[in-house]
Design goal:
Length: 224
C-alpha cells in the first residue's frame, strides 16, 4: 500500500509536522527525503532497503553514486540531493563550533568530526586550532594517508599552529577499519606532537579518534 493511502496520523511527513523529526525512525526520515516509492514498494520500504544494504546511515552517506543507484529510488538526482543535505549539515555544525567555545560544546565538536571523517575510506588527520578563549580559529587537514597509516610530521604541525597564532589545538583522525580504539602508534604520535608543540607554548587539549558512529577521546582516557 502506498504511503498516501495510509491513515494520516501514520504518514511520515504528517508525523514529522505534528511531532518533529526526532519522532521518526531512520527509514521514515529517508521516506520523507525520497518522497515517493516505486511500484510495489513504499518510500519507507526503499529506506529500509538502503539502510540494510549499507549497514545504516553512515554507510549510506558514504556510498558513491554508482553504489547508491543500485538501490531502488536512489538515482543521480537523489544522490546529489543527499550530498547537498550532508554538506549543509556539516556547514551548520561548523558554524556552531566556530561560534561557541569548543570546551563548552564538546558534543558539537564530536558531531562535526563524525560527519566530516566517519564516511572516509582513507585515513585523514586534522587539527582544530583554538585561540586563548578556546574559540575555533581554523581547521586544517594536515595529512591524508592509506587505509591503515598516515604520516604526520610534528615540525609541520608546529608551523601550522604558529601560522594560525593558536593557543591550543585538538587533533582528530579517523579509523576506516571501524575500530575506534587508539593504537600504540596513535599514542606515540600524540605524545610526540604534544612535546613538539609545548616548545612553542601551544597546548594539546585532546586527540579524538572517529570510527563510524563512535569516537574516543584521549583526554577522557587520560592519555594526554
Amino acid at each position: 500500500m502506498a504511503i498516501k493511502d495510509w491513515p494520516e496520523g501514520e504518514r511520515p511527513r504528517e508525523r514529522l509536522l505534528a511531532s518533529g523529526a526526532r519522532a521518526l525512525s531512520d527509514a521514515e526520515l529517508l521516506a520523507v527525503f525520497l518522497r515517493t516509492g516505486t511500484p510495489g514498494r513504499s518510500a519507507i520500504d526503499l529506506g529500509r532497503d538502503a539502510l540494510a544494504r549499507f549497514g545504516g546511515l553512515n554507510g549510506l552517506f558514504a556510498a558513491d553514486a554508482s553504489a547508491l543507484a543500485e538501490v531502488g529510488g536512489f538515482g543521480p538526482a537523489k544522490y546529489t540531493q543527499l550530498q547537498a543535505v550532508l554538506e549543509l549539515a556539516r556547514r551548520a555544525l561548523q558554524e556552531d563550533v566556530k561560534r561557541d567555545t569548543l570546551l563548552s560544546s564538546p558534543g558539537k565538536v564530536r558531531d562535526y568530526l563524525r560527519l566530516t571523517l566517519a564516511h572516509l575510506e582513507h585515513e585523514v588527520f586534522v587539527a582544530l586550532y583554538l585561540d586563548a578563549q578556546n574559540r575555533l580559529v581554523a581547521t586544517d587537514e594536515l595529512f591524508r594517508g592509506t587505509l591503515t597509516q598516515t604520516s604526520v610530521y610534528p615540525r609541520e604541525v608546529v608551523k601550522r599552529a604558529l601560522k594560525h597564532n593558536a593557543a591550543s589545538v585538538i587533533f582528530a583522525h579517523n579509523h576506516p577499519s571501524g575500530v575506534a580504539e587508539p593504537s600504540r602508534a596513535d599514542e606515540l604520535l600524540t605524545s610526540n606532537l604534544k612535546q613538539a608543540l609545548s616548545l612553542v607554548d601551544v597546548k594539546v587539549l585532546d586527540h579524538l579518534i572517529v570510527a563510524g558512529s563512535a569516537t574516543v577521546s584521549f583526554a577522557e582516557r587520560g592519555l594526554l
